[in-house]
């Protein structure tokens, strides 16, 4: 029996991927287009990873350059300024997911575990009045597997009664790490490999 639902945020609750993708292009607009598009591809494949990890990847793996933690934070703050206010707009909320949450948040204990920056995530959820549905809302720089573990441990949840709903392989890895069931959503590439939610209509 499922009692606890942990939602990924980007791509599951909020249709934020296009805005965040464009955000990386704007953030690194002074760099060569080929390198930036490599980062964009990495970003799209690794939806559950934080902006901090993606910025490090851009410099370390694509540009073959070292980058300090201070510089990573500087770029992450710039990225926040580019994307945060735009995403605090109701038009980006995935209505099917919202309808499910509104109808079921009193039946299940719901949480958000996201790769998005924690401060940005809570700003967006508060602005959109989504925070009232969730017992906790957590994001990066903590990695998702640690966030999920914290939710389970703090609330003393049974892993057999807890699921994670996400749209990326990184979400699956976070669920696997914590020995909970994973349900894919809004990403057809996950469909043949995992339990999958085609529609929240009729879901548990």
List the helices and strands and how they pair.
Blueprint lengths: L3 E4 L9 H11 L5 H13 L5 H12 L6 H19 L7 H10 L4 E9 H10 L8 E5 L3 H12 L6 E5 L2 H9 L3 E5 L9 E3 L7
Parallel strand pairs: 1-2, 1-4, 2-3, 4-5, 5-6
Structural class: alpha/beta
For the record, what is the CATH homologous superfamily label of the largest domain? Answer: HAD superfamily/HAD-like
- The number of strands is 6
Characterize the biggest β-sheet. 6 strands, parallel
Rg value: 17 Å
Instruction: Tell the overall outline.
Output: globular
Name the helicity range: 40-55%
* Cα end-to-end separation: 10 Å
Count of helical stretches: 8
User: How many domains make up the coordinates?
Assistant: 2
Q: Order of strands across the widest beta sheet?
A: 3-2-1-4-5-6
CATH level-3 fold name of the largest domain:
Rossmann fold
Low-confidence stretches: none
Indicate the mean pLDDT. 96
Quickly name the level 1 CATH class of the largest domain.
Alpha Beta
Can you name the CATH architecture of the largest domain? 3-Layer(aba) Sandwich
Oligomer: single chain
What's the order of the H and E elements? EHHHHHEHEHEHEE
Strand content: 15-25%
Structure description:
Its EC number is 3.1.3.18. The structure is a single chain. By secondary structure, the chain is an alpha/beta fold. The protein folds into 2 domains: 4-15 and 91-197, Rossmann fold (3-Layer(aba) Sandwich), CATH 3.40.50.1000; 17-87. The protein contains 8 helices and 6 strands, in the order βαααααβαβαβαββ. Helix 1 packs across helix 4 (69-87), helix 2 (33-45) crosses helix 3 and helix 3 packs across helix 4. The longest helix is centred in the middle third of the chain and has 19 residues, at 69-87. The chain is globular and about 50 Å long.
């Amino acid at each position: 029996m499922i009692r606890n639902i942990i939602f990924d945020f980007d791509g599951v609750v909020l249709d934020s991927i296009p805005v965040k993708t464009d955000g990386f292009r704007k953030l690194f607009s002074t760099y060569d287009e080929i390198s930036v598009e490599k980062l964009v591809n990495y970003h799209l494949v690794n939806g559950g990873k934080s902006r901090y990890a993606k910025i490090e990847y851009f410099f370390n793996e694509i540009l073959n350059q070292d980058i300090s933690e201070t510089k990573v934070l500087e770029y992450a703050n710039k990225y926040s300024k580019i994307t945060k206010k735009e995403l605090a707009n109701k038009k980006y909320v995935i209505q099917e997911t919202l309808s499910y949450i509104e109808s079921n948040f009193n039946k299940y204990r719901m949480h958000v575990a996201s790769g998005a920056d924690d401060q940005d995530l809570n700003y967006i959820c508060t602005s959109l009045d989504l925070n009232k549905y969730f017992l906790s809302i957590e994001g990066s720089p903590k990695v998702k597997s640690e966030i999920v573990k914290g939710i389970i441990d703090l609330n003393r949840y049974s892993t057999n009664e807890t699921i994670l709903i996400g749209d990326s392989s990184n979400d699956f890895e976070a669920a696997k790490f914590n020995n909970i069931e994973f349900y894919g959503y809004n990403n057809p590439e996950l469909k043949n490999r995992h339990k999958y939610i085609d529609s929240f209509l009729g879901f548990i």
